[in-house]
Amino acid sequence: MKRPTLPMHTPAVDCTPPEARVQRRRLRACHECDWVSALPPLGSGEKASCPRCSHVLVKRHRYPAQRSMALAIASLVALILAVSFPFVSFSVGGIGNRIELTQTATALINFHQPIVAIAVIMTIVVLPSVYLTGVIWLQFGLLRARPLPLSRDIARSLAHLTPWMMADVFIIGALVSLIKVAGMAQIELGISFWAFCVFAILLLMTTQSIDADWMWFSLEGEPLAPEGTLTGATAASQQVTGCPTCGLVNRFDKDHRRCIRCHEKLHTRLPHSLQRTWALLFAAAIMYIPANVYPIMTTTSLGHTAPSTIIGGVVQLLQMGSWPVAAVIFIASVIVPVGKLVALVWLCLMINRSNELNANSRTRLYRITEFIGRWSMVDVFVVAILVALIRAGSLMSITPGPAALAFGAVVVLTMLAAMTFDSRLIWDSPTPRPARRTTATKDAIDG
Questions:
Q1: d(CA 69, CA 144)
Q2: Quick one: which of 420, 3, 370, 27 has its CA closest to 213?
Q3: Which has the closest alpha carbon to 55: 369, 364, 358?
Q4: Dist. CA 146–CA 111, nearest whole Å
Q5: Is 265 helix (H, G, I), strand (E, B) or coil?
Q6: d(C-alpha 286, C-alpha 406), whole Å
Q7: What does the alpha-carbon distance between residue 63 and residue 142 come to, in Å, rounded to a whole number?
Q8: Hey, which bits of 125-218 come out as E strands?
Q9: Would you list the DSSP string of 60-87?
Q10: Are the CB atoms for 114 and 108 separated by under 8 Å?
Q11: I need a surface site. Which of 197, 275, 357, 447 has the fewest CB within 10 A?
């Protein structure tokens, strides 16, 4: 089979994919089921999936360094515009207010909610900025064929930052907030709002454009897999393991506990995975009680103060006829957190029943659970936006309630629970159960 190549006038890092630069098999151990496979030659837009659980091992992009760098620069420019101009304004009865993007966080500090404020500014501005700067730093060095200092550490951190960037979730929260206010006041969208929408799309495209396999090969090459490593078997059974960050297959013993390419910590299975997951789920379940009992925000209108819980807000939206918005809030704030808790509890309970339940189905359930967790932050972002925007004294104002912190804690704890759950345990052979003593067996023993 002819190996795929790209036009040779492109920079060295973009000329040929890794499999065209080495004359040997490149092995990968699936991080979801631990199955060892050999990567086939891939063309632009093609991907290699695990034959056992269908997890995507490598996805190839055309001009990966140039594409990622261009998208990262465009995203950073859009973010600078988003924080430099007015975000949204409202007016009612001749009184109004105009806010900038960063005020969605700073306003919370004024109401003694610093932890929620930090979470908001980190997920929508700080972490995306760090991520995009890291991508530009990395790809610039690769395009020059001379990686810049700290490139390996930066590349290792990119995958860890991705789940915590929530610009897309913030946009949904902003739309929900504006729909809730539109019936009570006149809303005007600023340049920052549209710039942030563009930024959210570009950031998503940037994260999807990262070809980690190509990037790590260009940064550090690819050392040989441990001698004797076989495909069509699990890595743990061969005393090897796949690096969760760069994908390299490493030997795992007391002398080899870090990846020889990216220096990430290695584990055949995450230590105390079930115990940590159970602890985080228990903490999330405890925090979910005050998140629903206490008000998430308090609305003052014409001198009348009305606290609102999460469920109360959904009911109020239904009474106003805003069925789509009520559905979004109900799904994000009730269905998703509860569903995630139930799903993870069920997965933990079923670990030792691999022979009785389909491992592929449980792995798909885990992927869905891991993906949807961050979308529960919609309600927290709605509170942040409304608190900053609706500030017209006794005429109309909104203040955050204690449930905002509790609900934010639920979101973070459930995300951490999904991260600490090792899906490879689903595919491990169950612990043998003691054999039941049948009547015939008992009679034979007694005889």
A1: 13
A2: 27
A3: 364
A4: 49
A5: strand
A6: 9
A7: 12
A8: 186-189
A9: --SSHHHHHHHHHHHHHHHHHHHTTSEE
A10: yes
A11: 447
Give 38's strand partners. 27
Q: Which two tokens stand for residue 355?
A: 């022979």
Token pair for 280:
């985080």
pLDDT over 70 at 133, yes or no: yes
Alpha-carbon gap, residue 373 to 164, rounded angstroms: 11
Instruction: Enter the DSSP assignment of 162.
Output: G
What are the residues whose beta carbons fall under 8 Å from the beta carbon of 25, sequence distance 6 or more? 38, 39
CB atoms near residue 93 (< 10 Å): 10
Q: Give the position of tokens 């409202």.
A: 90
Q: Report d(CA 71, CA 131) in Å as an integer.
A: 12
The more confidently predicted of residues 197 and 182 is: 197
Q: How far apart are CA 292 and CA 376, in angstroms?
A: 14
Judge contact between 231 and 27, C-beta under 8 A: yes
Please report where in the chains the tokens 């159960």 appear, as a residue.
Answer: 433
CB 182 within 8 A of CB 394: no
pTM of the model: 0.87
Helix axes 212-220, 127-143, angle to 10 degrees: 50
Q: Work out whether the CA dihedral 354, 416, 48, 232 comes out positive or negative.
A: negative
The DSSP annotation for 204-240 comes to HHHHHH--HHHHHHHHH--PPPPTT--SSSBSGGGTE
DSSP three-state, residue 58 = strand
Q: Which of 429, 344, 424, 356 is nearest to 53 (CA)?
A: 424
| CA dist., res. 83 & res. 192, Å (int) | 7
3-class secondary-structure state, position 188: strand
* pLDDT digit string, tens, across residues 300-345: 776 677 788 888 888 877 877 778 778 888 888 888 899 999 999 9
- pLDDT category at 438 given cuts 50, 70, 90 is very low
- Nearest CA to 376 among 178, 118, 173? 173
Q: Strand order in 297-301's β-sheet? A: 304-308, 297-301, 396-400, 391-392
pLDDT category of residue 159 using cuts at 50, 70 and 90: confident
pLDDT at position 441:
36
Distance CA 98, CA 231 (A): 60
User: What is residue 393's DSSP assignment?
Assistant: T
DSSP state of 341: H
The distance from CA 26 to its chain's CA centroid, rounded to whole angstroms, is: 28
300, 394 in Cβ contact below 8 A?
Answer: yes
- Tell me which residue has tokens 């789920």: 281
The strands making up 95-100's β-sheet, listed across from edge to edge, are 95-100, 86-92, 186-189
